[in-house]
């Protein structure tokens, strides 16, 4: 993940995938593409030809090229000069179309990268938007063990030595999957999505006190590892001796939210005590969380039943 990319960076990674070839402006390879802000707002990263609000990557497909060819010479030149004025970092002609000679000349003169691909314009834009959503996403690292449990991404947090890794190991033995231990990385790839991944150096490893570092993939197979998952829930483990009785809601448990990269993530607190089967409790907590997402609250259901029973028993 990074704050910006250059045209050369994009070519290194996406040249083969997109079938990109240089047409002109090779000296502009260090032009940057980023989530930059201007007094007029944040320009779009990539999109079809837009002169009024220029995209950082201007895509010229069949419709755009047909429009440019239909203009009179002076009008055509005005638009091409705006395209190469520096407001945009990169120009891509799609559908194997031939760029206008004047565009090629201006691009070379102004060192604005001009590239061509055989892909349709809409397909190119979709691929690049997905690429940028990953590469330019806002990121953070959280301490804990990130896992896929019952199909959702769950981050196990808590103080050191509270038992996170032991709990993760038991969950893995029950068929759930490890994403990252100790330092999972999270990126906000969409307005409401945080994707968690594992730093390359820590992939497949889980540290358990008394056992040392374990290679989960080697021990349990590929099915025990998940490369990435969206963060949907945090389970915070706390020593029961440090949890005040008055802090626990007997009907609804201990719940709150934690803000991660601007998103509110639900948190469930689980008291840790000898004899408690935390793996079973985590599974139950997640199943109950999924029910709550569907609008069912067991504590409210019980309270409603009690009120009805009291009304029946009252003369």
From TrEMBL:
The keyword Transferase applies. Residues 6-131 form the HPr(Ser) kinase/phosphorylase N-terminal domain. The active site is at 143, 164, 182 (proton acceptor), 250. It comes from the Bacteria. It is an enzyme of class 2 (transferase). InterPro entries: HPr(Ser)_kin/Pase, Hpr_kin/Pase_C, Hpr_kin/Pase_Hpr_N, P-loop_NTPase, Ser_kin/Pase_Hpr-like_N_sf. The keyword Magnesium applies. Residues 135-305 form the HPr kinase/phosphorylase C-terminal domain. CDD domains: HprK_C. It catalyses: [HPr protein]-L-serine + ATP = [HPr protein]-O-phospho-L-serine + ADP + H(+); [HPr protein]-O-phospho-L-serine + phosphate + H(+) = [HPr protein]-L-serine + diphosphate. Gene3D superfamilies: HprK N-terminal domain-like (3.40.1390.20), P-loop containing nucleotide triphosphate hydrolases (3.40.50.300). Residues 206-215 are annotated as: Important for the catalytic mechanism of both phosphorylation and dephosphorylation. Its cofactor is Mg(2+). Mg(2+) binds at residues 165, 207. HAMAP family: HPr_kinase. Both phosphorylation and phosphorolysis are carried out by the same active site and suggest a common mechanism for both reactions. Catalyzes the ATP- as well as the pyrophosphate-dependent phosphorylation of a specific serine residue in HPr, a phosphocarrier protein of the phosphoenolpyruvate-dependent sugar phosphotransferase system (PTS). HprK/P also catalyzes the pyrophosphate-producing, inorganic phosphate-dependent dephosphorylation (phosphorolysis) of seryl-phosphorylated HPr (P-Ser-HPr). Homohexamer. The Walker A ATP-binding motif also binds Pi and PPi. This is HPr kinase/phosphorylase. The lineage of its organism: Bacteria, Pseudomonadati, Pseudomonadota, Gammaproteobacteria, Chromatiales. The gene is hprK.
């Amino acid at each position: 993940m990074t704050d910006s990319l250059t045209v050369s960076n994009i070519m290194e990674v996406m040249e083969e995938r997109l079938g990109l070839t240089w047409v002109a402006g090779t000296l502009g390879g260090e032009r940057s593409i980023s989530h930059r802000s201007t007094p007029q707002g944040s320009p779009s990263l990539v999109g079809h030809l837009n002169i009024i609000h220029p995209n950082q990557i201007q895509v010229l497909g069949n419709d755009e090229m047909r429009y440019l060819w239909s203009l009179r010479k002076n009008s055509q030149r005005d638009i091409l000069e705006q395209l190469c004025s520096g407001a945009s970092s990169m120009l891509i002609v799609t559908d194997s179309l031939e760029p206008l000679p004047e565009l090629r000349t201006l691009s070379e003169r102004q060192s604005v990268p001009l590239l061509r691909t055989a892909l349709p314009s809409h397909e190119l834009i979709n691929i690049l938007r997905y690429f940028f959503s990953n590469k330019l996403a806002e990121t953070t690292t959280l301490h804990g063990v990130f896992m896929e449990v019952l199909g959702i991404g769950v981050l196990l947090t808590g103080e050191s030595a509270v038992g996170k890794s032991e709990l993760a190991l038991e969950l893995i033995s029950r068929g759930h999957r490890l994403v990252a231990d100790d330092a999972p990385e999270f990126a906000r790839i969409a307005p409401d999505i945080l994707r968690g991944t594992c730093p390359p150096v820590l992939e497949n490893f889980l540290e358990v006190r008394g056992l040392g570092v374990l290679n989960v993939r080697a021990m349990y197979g590929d099915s025990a590892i998940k490369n990435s998952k969206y963060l949907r829930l945090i389970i915070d483990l706390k020593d029961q001796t440090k949890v005040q009785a008055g802090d626990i809601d007997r009907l609804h448990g201990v719940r709150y939210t934690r803000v991660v990269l601007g998103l509110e993530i639900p948190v469930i607190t689980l008291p840790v005590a000898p004899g408690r089967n935390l793996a079973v409790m985590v599974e139950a907590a997640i199943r109950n969380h999924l029910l709550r997402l569907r609008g069912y609250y067991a504590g409210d259901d019980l309270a409603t039943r009690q009120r009805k029973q009291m009304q029946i028993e009252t003369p």
